[in-house]
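Hi C.,

You asked whether I'd gotten around to modeling the 345-residue construct. I have! Everything is below, sequence then structure, no commentary in between.
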Amino acid sequence: MTFFIELPKKPSARLVLKNQDRGIASTNPMLRRQPMMQRRTLALTLLLPLLLLASQAAAAVKTLTLADVEAMVAQKPAEGHYMLIDARPEIKYFGSHLPHAVSLPWMEMKERLDELPEDKATALVFYCGGLKCDLSAKAAALVEKMGYTDVSIFPEGEPGWRKEGNSPWVATSHIKMILNDRDRIALVVDARPFIKYNAGTIPGALNIPFQEWDKLKGLLPADKDTQLIFFCGGLKCNLSHKSAAAARAMGYTDVRTYAEGWPAWKKNSTRAFAMVNPKQEGQAAPAEAEAMVYEGEIGKEEFLKLVAEKPEGLLLIDVRPADEFEKAHIPGAINILDEKIEEHI
């Protein structure tokens, strides 16, 4: 709503007022300005309700604290019925974004509205580049006009997430950029067991299995500002997050996780480096290498003997994802993801 207030035109002649007490003419400038001041006061009085309405509209969008966001991303979006949206340019998202966030840049949002949830009650949380960035507020205002009923912003954004010691996630595109750019200093670390790494990994990745962290952490660079990117077996695997936390505790300042990990890399890249060369057609099968048994492990023969004899007190735990366990597993085994083992001890 707009108000137009017509102010008096500038007089062409000097305004002379009568002094009621002395009956003489006065040219006191304060007296001449009184009508104008009264009109300006009226204008401000009429504008105050508009300013109040504007401030109320701005306050209508909820803001979340870091603790709120940390609690939210502890659940997957489908479980928490939310969508966390990065409103920055996509190139920023590739290299560092909040867990479970999707990229929907403000500059492209009007053309990509079909990517928003159909359910208007879904919680939409926007963030961008910190307190000086207004992209998240603009995006929130847009979706509110579309009828979404649970809209909020995380004002501190990606800088606020990292400032408090949380590791951001990276996308597959960021890993590809690292491999293609020799000047980009970063180290990709495979946190999976050696047998998994040996079967295939991201080119150039260093293998530091989380189970052997204390033994192998000395392989990390001496420069604590080196960008470290940890990955493991995908979103259901927690080894990369545990490794990232351990690296932060050692004082590394730029620690990130490639949470989608090995499954996403195999799906989206042809550069899957296998540590063991596959058998070529026409070649004889290579002699089977002697199995390596690490501390805390048992060999194949001993394992098969235990399964066959089933001694009292034997508990077999299959640590693979539930869908793999359901397809096939050793009779009598129970299914607990490796990252959940500690909760059941």
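If it helps when you're writing up: The first strand starts at residue 17 and ends at 18.

Thanks,
B.
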